[in-house]
């Protein structure tokens, strides 16, 4: 997963691509060997390529010490390095193309993310290549002969991060979406306030009197789902409640099978099923019906995402609305900022609990 990483420092300046550094030379220069690149300048000056970009792009003041800047300028003079002025003036690169890596195209959430990314990209004269990881998660085939030659930057969902390992381009600026800021591969991360969403769900159910919870969790090893589990546990801490966690595949039928087994097992039946996404919620509602339980009279069910599915089922789902298009917009804005040497907005985007018919007051559970 380390093949693509954020190659920026000092407020996220873009790392120049040596292929973009073209000098106009006379015939006698042709025989002098390869042109010096910003990598050569960085090595000679003992600094990063991002620092070279800042200094030679005249954006170093306040971010690079004066002696360091002079060292970079001296190294550039000694090597005869001249950056491509046209590319530097464009600031946003040569291909003006970004890659968006998502787990799958069939998920409505990622379709909305793409819409947001494309809207901001168009505003900045960028094209977007959409690349779904073929198996949803896990490695994927490299779609480019040379990612560095084809792209200016990458936006990637944490759920598809394994696909990044095959997209070789160590110098590509990378923005991670829905990813742990502390352990991100990228120059920056863009997140939704998932923890607050799960807090809103849990407090809503507690206010309705629920004390026996079933957490129907996604069977996916990903930070985005870990956050939900941690927020649920944190909100219930110190309350007189019981919570049982089971995992299910991210599809309606798989969720139905797991939820049916959990709701019909021994001991007190949970009065609330907290689901990691709306597909799991739909499966939980189907499981309840097959067991002769009414939603929400016998069991309340909550979702996460607020997909079209949430209002297609009956009763309609109480769920957390995620602003997917705004999320995509923020992701592309962050990539543009990184390429432009600016610090992106790192604040998580707010989410909203939407209360509908699938939740109601708790009735005491009973043994089976």
Write up this protein.
The protein is 35% helix and 14% strand. Helix 1 crosses helix 2 (49-56), helix 1 crosses helix 3 (66-79) and helix 5 (108-123) crosses helix 12. It has 368 residues and is an alpha/beta fold. The strands form three sheets. A five-stranded parallel sheet has the order 2-1-3-4-5, with helices on one face. It has a four-stranded parallel sheet with strand order 7-6-8-9, sandwiched between helices. Mean pLDDT is 82; it is low at 1-32 and 85-93. It has twelve helices and eleven strands.
Helix content: 25-40%
Q: How many strands in all? A: 11
As a whole number of angstroms, the C-alpha radius of gyration is 25 Å
Classification by helices and strands: alpha/beta
Tally of DSSP helical segments: 12
What is the oligomer described by this structure? single chain
* N-C termini distance: 47 Å
How would you state the average pLDDT, rounded? 82
Could you provide a short overview of the structure?
The chain is built from twelve helices and eleven strands. The chain has helices spanning 38-45, 49-56, 66-79, 85-90, 108-123, 147-150, 194-207, 223-236, 252-263, 278-290, 309-312, 324-339, and strands at 97-102, 127-132, 153-157, 174-177, 188-190, 212-218, 242-248, 272-275, 300-302, 319-321, 352-354. Strand 1 (97-102), helix 5 and strand 2 form a beta-alpha-beta unit.
Question: Characteristics of this structure?
Answer:
disordered N terminus; 12 helices; 5-stranded parallel beta sheet; 368 residues; 4-stranded parallel beta sheet; alpha/beta; 35% helix
């Amino acid at each position: 997963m380390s093949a693509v990483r954020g190659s920026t420092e000092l407020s996220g300046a873009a790392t120049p691509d040596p292929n973009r550094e073209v000098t106009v030379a006379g015939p006698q220069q042709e025989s002098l060997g390869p042109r010096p690149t910003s990598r050569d300048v960085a090595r000679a000056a003992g600094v990063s390529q991002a620092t070279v970009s800042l200094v030679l792009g005249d954006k170093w003041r306040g971010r690079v010490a004066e002696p360091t800047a002079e060292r970079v300028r001296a190294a550039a003079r000694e090597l005869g390095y001249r950056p491509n002025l046209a590319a530097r003036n464009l600031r946003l690169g040569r291909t003006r193309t970004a890659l968006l890596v998502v787990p799958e195209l069939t998920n409505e959430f990622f379709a909305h993310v793409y819409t947001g990314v494309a809207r901001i990209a168009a505003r900045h004269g960028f094209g977007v290549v959409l690349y779904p990881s073929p198996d949803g998660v896990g490695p994927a085939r490299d779609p480019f002969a040379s990612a560095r030659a084809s792209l200016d930057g990458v936006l990637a969902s944490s759920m598809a991060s394994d696909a990044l390992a095959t997209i070789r381009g160590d110098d590509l600026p990378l923005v991670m979406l829905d990813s742990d800021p502390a352990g991100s591969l990228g120059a920056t991360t863009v997140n939704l306030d998932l923890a607050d969403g799960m807090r809103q769900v849990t407090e809503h159910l507690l206010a309705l009197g629920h004390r026996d919870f079933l957490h129907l969790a996604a069977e996916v090893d990903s930070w985005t789902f870990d956050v939900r589990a941690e927020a649920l546990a944190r909100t219930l801490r110190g309350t007189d409640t019981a919570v049982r966690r089971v995992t299910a595949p991210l599809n309606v039928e798989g969720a139905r099978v797991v939820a049916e087994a959990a709701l019909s097992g021994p001991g007190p039946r949970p009065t609330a099923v907290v689901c990691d996404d709306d597909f799991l919620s739909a499966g939980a509602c189907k499981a309840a019906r097959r067991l002769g339980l009414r939603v929400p009279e016998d069991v309340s069910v909550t979702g996460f995402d607020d997909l079209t599915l949430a209002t297609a089922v009956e009763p309609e789902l109480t769920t957390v609305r995620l602003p997917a298009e705004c999320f995509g917009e923020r992701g592309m804005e962050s990539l543009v900022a990184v390429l432009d040497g600016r610090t992106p907005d790192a604040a998580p985007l707010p989410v909203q609990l939407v209360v509908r018919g699938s939740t109601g007051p708790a009735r005491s559970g009973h043994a089976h």
